[in-house]
Amino acid sequence: MLFSALLLKKITMIKNTPINFDVVKRKIEETNLPDIGNASIREIVRLVNEVEAETGEQYIRMEMGVPGLDLSEIAKKAEKKALDDGLASKYAMIEGVPVLKEEISRFVKMFLDIDVKPQGCVPTVGSLQGSMILFLVANRTDASKEGTLFIDPGFPVQKLQCQVLGHQYKSFDVFDYRGEKLRDKLESFLKDGKMSSILYSNPNNPSWISFTESELKIIAEVADKYDVIVIEDLAYFGMDFRKDYSHPGEAPFQPTIAKYTDNYVLLISSSKSFSYAGQRVGMMAISDKLFQRKYSDLKRFYSTDGFGYSIIYNTLYALSSGVPHTPQYGLTALLKAANNGEFNFREGILEYGKRAKVMKKLFLDNGFKLVYDNDEGAELADGFYFTISYPGMTGGELLEKFLYYGISAIALQTTGSDRTEGLRACVSQTSEDKYSILESRLKAFNKEFSGK
Length: 452
Ligand SMILES: Cc1ncc(COP(=O)(O)O)c(C=O)c1O
Hints:
The strands form 4 sheets. A 7-stranded mixed sheet has the order 2-8-7-6-5-3-4, with helices on both faces. A 4-stranded antiparallel sheet has the order 9-12-15-14, covered by helices on one side. Strands 1-13 form a two-stranded parallel ribbon. It is built from 15 helices and 15 strands. The protein folds into 2 domains: about 15-70 and about 345-450, Aspartate Aminotransferase, domain 1 (Alpha-Beta Complex), CATH 3.90.1150.100; about 75-340, Type I PLP-dependent aspartate aminotransferase-like (Major domain) (Aspartate Aminotransferase, domain 2, 3-Layer(aba) Sandwich). By secondary structure, it is of the alpha/beta class. Helix 6 (about 125-140) packs across helix 11 and helix 8 runs parallel beside helix 9. The protein has helices at about 1-15, 20-30, 40-55, 75-85, 100-110, 125-140, 155-165, 180-190, 215-225, 290, 305-320, 325-340, 345-365, 395-405, 435-450; strands at about 60, 120-125, 145-150, 170-175, 195-200, 230-235, 265-270, 280-285, 370, 375, 380, 385-390, 405-410, 410, 425. The protein binds pyridoxal-5'-phosphate (PLP). Pyridoxal-5'-phosphate (PLP) binds next to helix 6.
């Protein structure tokens, strides 16, 4: 009797959630996913859109890394001019417009302190096209090799790219292998000589860890030992806000693998650092040596054995025949202004760091813990993402419960992380006016589940 009364009370309490319990439950059931923790970013987006539409309630949306800031007028003006100049009716050259190639080359010199000739600086349709192109070329340089090693956690779409291409890939969660331990772990994957490329993002999506200089050196040394091409994904360029990497030609510079090996390609997205996601324009910087390198096995697929040539005139050609003119000119204007010290890209995006600082505190004050929380002992930066867990819950359970509390996120298990208890929180859509709602929902959540 007492037990059933208690049970009844619990159910009534749980049903009294910030978002209508029955609607959320039905919508989750309609996904037909046995574990909501396996839902992709886009599946969560759809689910939450539907609940919002039916209930009229707004979520604290932390599932998708949409830039929450405006594009600079500098880029808009340059795009408009390109349009007015009649460029929309003309094909753009596949390798990119020369002014943009020059500015990308200057940009990597000014902000990474590395030399890459304009010929290896190539615009792509978002940096996601860059990774697709690289899998298609790097993973075909040697007939005896078969794919990519991902240093996880990571961005799931890049593994999807390998899957749709039918390429093999391997991955491991770097959580327990920071510092010198990384060397043996990498060796264990590369020693059979089967991997063509290594990919990681730095700062990392989703964990926001950043490799230290000594870790980058280790990755480079092991890659050179096994002749593996390193794809360094700088999707969050300059966004490790612990240091200011935004002054052209002045240290500190954004850390990069390019300091330690010639076997690299950098993917530099403009989506987050320049709030330029919608126009789908990114950049690739191929090391001068790698650009010129010849791999006879490429001839199985391409007209030449040249790495750089196969990237541009075979693969980028086959995929999209280059990048539209107007975003190329918009990006050129932005890079030029940044290179000349007239546009500080960091100032605008620092907002993400401010949001993360407040939001992390709200979570920590309400019983949550950070999952990935240090770089070889140093506290992580406040930035675009952070990772959280709640005692006694798996990531899938936490995500499901959050949906009733008007908060959305993605489970770390979908990113190659072994930390199955964790969620990734993205700060980009949570502006200051939403902090108090987040706080009240987290308080209600903690009151319900802390057992206090
Ligand atoms: C790690 C990582 N790489 C690549 C991308 C894709 O960037 P783009 O918009 O330039 O295609 C993202 C976007 O979220 C990302 O997080």
